[in-house]
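Q: What structure does this chain adopt?
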Amino acid sequence: MRQPTPRPATLTRALAGDPSLARQVAMVLAGSLLVAASAQVSVPMYPVPMTLQTLAISLIGLTYGARLAAITLAVYLVQGALGLPVFAGGAATLPYMMGPTGGFLIGFVAMAWATGWLVERGLDRGIVRLFVASFLPALGLFVPGVLWLWAVTPLSIEGAFAAGALPFLPGAVVKAAIAALIVAGGWKALAARNRG
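A:
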C-alpha cells in the first residue's frame, strides 16, 4: 500500500515547496531585516530594553523551520557585529554584544532553532500547538539572558531575574499568542486558496 505524502511542516515550504538556494538566501536576509526592524520598536528599560524581537523570531521559527531560522538569526548577529545598526536603538558592534543584553542576543539563535524544531515535530498547526512552539523557546531565552546579565553586571542572580526576566514574562505570553494567531491565519488562508 502506498504511503501518504507527508505534509509540509512549515508554512514557507507549503507555500513554495523546497526553496532554492537563492530563495533561502532571500528568506534569510528578509528575516534578519524583520528582526532588525522589530528591534527598533522598543521601550527603553535598563539594563534590558523591551522590544518586538522575540515576536519576529517566533514568526521566523514558526514559518522557516529550525535550520533556516537559526541561520537567519546567526546572520542577524553577524550584521550587528560588523557594525550595522540592527540592535535595539540602532546599536551595533561586538562590544555592545558583550554588554548586558549579550545573553539574549546569543540566545536568539537557539530560540529560533527550537521554535522551528518544535514545528517540524508536529506543533505546526492550530493556535494552541503554535502557541506552545512559540512560547516554550521564548521562555527558554531567559536562561542565557539572565545568566549573562548576572555575569556581566553587579546584580545578584535574583536581581538579574528581576531585571531581565520578570518584567518580560507577560509580554512573552502575548507575543507568543500573536505569533500563533498570525501563523494559524496563514495556514487557513493557504487552505482556502487551495480549496478555491
